[in-house]
Structure prediction request, 222 residues.
Amino acid sequence: MAYILNIETATKNCSVALAKDGVVIICKEIAEEGFSHAEKLHLFIEDCIKEAGVTLQDLSAVAVSQGPGSYTGLRIGVSAAKGLCFALSIPLIAIDTLQSLASQAHVADGVIIPMIDARRMEVYSAVFSAEGERLREVQAEIITEHSFSDYAEKVYFVGDCAEKCSTLLTNSNFVFLVEFKYPSANEMAQLSFEKYKKNDTVDVAYFEPYYLKDFMITTSKK
Prediction:
């Protein structure tokens, strides 16, 4: 029996799920325009543990969304996950954020392309089969009217980029699943349990989020 705490903070969705053997017991999450991760994350962790009737000492591992995504969001989530793993002497599991996002879509055929907004017309994306097999690795790319035109089968887009990309990605085989906007800790549960069974963990001391791009500091115009 394995209790795994799953933490997702890579986007605007601050999400925590406690799962037992890959099945979610309870999930707390909130997606706000302004990031509330610093204020909400530890409260959600405490609530999940308390409402499930377990203790932190019952945890077998902590799983965290590794990115790509928001620099600040990823730092908050990874810092919290590392702190718990150090304190409890339990393993840390890293989950690909785009794989987690893609797993929200249940389709019979075609390909699933999860996309996370990376400002302007740039996105973080990957490509998965309908069965969840990774067909293309994560990339940061500028979206144009020619993007993904090589795919003749149905292409299902998930993520927070529908509004800005749908005017360019107009091929008849393109479908935007707008109900799947942000990755959630709910979808991390099965992925983290499979990794836990394989002892597929990361070094707590040296693990860093997958930012994909360097963090840019800009100067205020005020």
About this structure: Residues 27 and 172 are 36 Å apart (CA to CA). Confidence is low (pLDDT under 50) at residues 215-222.
